[in-house]
């Protein structure tokens, strides 16, 4: 079973590919990358590389031929020189899905984001909630989800969608960057997290599980952290007025991950950032 991973040199992709190539697994892994030099460590581990841009249909067709499963991770957070957020996040996902249908791919795993939910609903967001995105990144990810779900409904795309929140750990500096935003928050505002190892195990379950086409799964840890905790984890002192700031939406970006537990038997390896700290997995 050949597995294609797009975005394989990114934060999630590089960790997923290493896991797929390790632990005695025999499945061939193909990676679609723009920069072969960045992919050399993965190629050295045994990955087959297709070099090109995910927005190029010819490259996509080459990458998908002979593939049994696809994990689509390519994403950008904003339009940059030479990269349009709509083209990369939405249009490329749809083109890849069409290529998957033409080639009889059996699994299409799409990594989305909890940000598609938008403002809070007075409770944690669940998968049946209608997305209400409020920023360009989440708007394009929502558009991609809708197009892919339509292809599942009309053409049988074997789609599985996963919605993680902020991903941290395993050498990723993301947790250390959070004070850039959280320093402006009320101290009791919470941030949902999930460890890289848990995102990887969720995506692998998306490749392996039977009977879940068209399903959406939130994937987060068990203990969102407050702005105060984020600052403390980074050895920073809160601003003097942080404790008196108003919290307008205590449920923004907080998700309910009970479905993935119930349906796929998912259990976080690191149920909290403190568990990851104790295990030396930051």
Describe the structure concisely.
The chain is α/β, with parallel strands linked by helices and 282 residues long. Helices cover 38% and strands 15% of the residues.
3D architecture notes:
A 7-stranded parallel beta sheet has the order 3-2-1-4-5-6-10, sandwiched between helices. Strands 7-9 form a two-stranded parallel ribbon. The protein has one domain (3-170, 194-221, 255-270): NAD(P)-binding Rossmann-like Domain (Rossmann fold, 3-Layer(aba) Sandwich), CATH 3.40.50. It contains 11 helices and 11 strands. The chain is globular, with a radius of gyration of 19 Å. With 282 residues, the chain is an alpha/beta fold. 38% of the residues lie in helices and 15% in strands. It starts with a strand and ends with a helix.
């Amino acid at each position: 079973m050949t597995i294609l991973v797009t975005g394989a040199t990114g934060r999630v992709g590089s960790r997923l590919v290493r896991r797929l190539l390790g632990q005695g697994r025999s499945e061939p892994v193909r990676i679609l990358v723009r920069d072969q030099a960045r992919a050399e460590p993965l190629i050295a581990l045994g990955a087959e590389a297709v070099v090109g841009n995910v927005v190029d249909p010819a490259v996509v067709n080459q990458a998908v031929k002979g593939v049994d499963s696809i994990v689509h991770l390519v994403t950008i957070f904003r339009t940059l020189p030479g990269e349009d957020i709509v083209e990369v996040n939405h249009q490329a996902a749809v083109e890849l899905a069409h290529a998957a249908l033409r080639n009889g791919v059996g699994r299409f795993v799409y990594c989305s984001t909890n940000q598609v939910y938008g403002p809070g609903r007075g409770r944690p967001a669940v998968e049946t909630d209608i997305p209400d995105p409020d920023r360009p990144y989440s708007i394009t990810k929502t558009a991609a989800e809708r197009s892919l779900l339509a292809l599942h409904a009309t053409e049988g795309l074997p789609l599985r969608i996963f919605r993680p929140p902020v991903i941290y750990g395993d050498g990723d500096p993301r947790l250390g960057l959070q004070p850039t935003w959280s320093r402006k928050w009320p101290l009791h505002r919470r941030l949902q997290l999930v460890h890289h190892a848990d995102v990887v195990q969720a995506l692998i379950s998306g490749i392996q599980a039977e009977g879940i086409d068209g399903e959406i799964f939130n994937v987060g840890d068990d203990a969102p952290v407050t702005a105060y905790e984020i600052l403390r984890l980074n050895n920073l002192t809160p601003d003097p007025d942080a404790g008196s700031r108003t919290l307008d939406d205590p449920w923004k970006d907080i998700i309910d991950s009970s479905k993935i537990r119930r349906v796929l038997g998912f259990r976080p390896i690191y149920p909290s950032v403190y568990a990851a700290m104790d295990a030396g997995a930051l």
